[in-house]
Amino acid sequence: MNNKERFQLEYTFNSSLKVLYDRLSTPSGLSEWFADDVNVQGNILTFIWNDSEQKAEILNKKENKHVRFRWLDDDNEFFFEFKLSTHELTNEVTLLVIDFATPDEIEESKELWDSQISELKRILGN
Predict the structure, then answer these.
(1) Domain residue spans in the chain?
(2) Confidence band for 80, pLDDT divided at 50, 70 and 90
(3) Which listed CATH number (1.20.58.1120, 3.40.50.300, 3.30.530.20, 3.40.50.2300) goes with 5-123?
(4) What's the CA gap between 126 and 23, in Å, rounded?
(5) Cα separation of 9 and 96, whole Å?
């Protein structure tokens, strides 16, 4: 019934894993670049933008490695995830964003992620 497709985007940062991970996994970090405000209750985060809000469950996380969320109003098989890795030679940190969208929304979703990640880079001085 739901015809969403998985897509992924890759970004590089000159930042420590820990600093970047904190911006991806904590309510205070996420409210700096992803939403206007983020509240947490247990494993549920409430993301607030202007007059709207959306709740997501943290499905899985491993410190300085990845965080996986699922929007509560979405089907169980869909999620969005942040994966981190460090390049051994350059020490650049790579952020992989994995998300799902319907075929006609993929380009728009990619543009939205590009915009959000560019805000994250600005905050981190990248």
Answers:
(1) 5-123
(2) very high
(3) 3.30.530.20
(4) 14
(5) 6
Residue 42: CA count within 13 A, CB half-sphere: 6
How many other C-beta atoms lie within 10 A of the C-beta of residue 121?
A: 17
DSSP-based helix, strand, coil % in the chain, nearest 5: 30, 40, 30
48 in helix, strand or coil? strand
- CA quadruple 6, 126, 61, 64: dihedral sign: positive
Residue 46's pLDDT is what?
97
Buried b (16+ CB within 10 A) or exposed e, 80-102: bbbbbeeeeeeeebebebebbbe
Q: What angle do CA 55, 59, 61 make, to 5 degrees?
A: 115
- From CA 121, how far away is CA 71, in angstroms rounded? 24
pTM of whole model > 0.90? Answer: yes
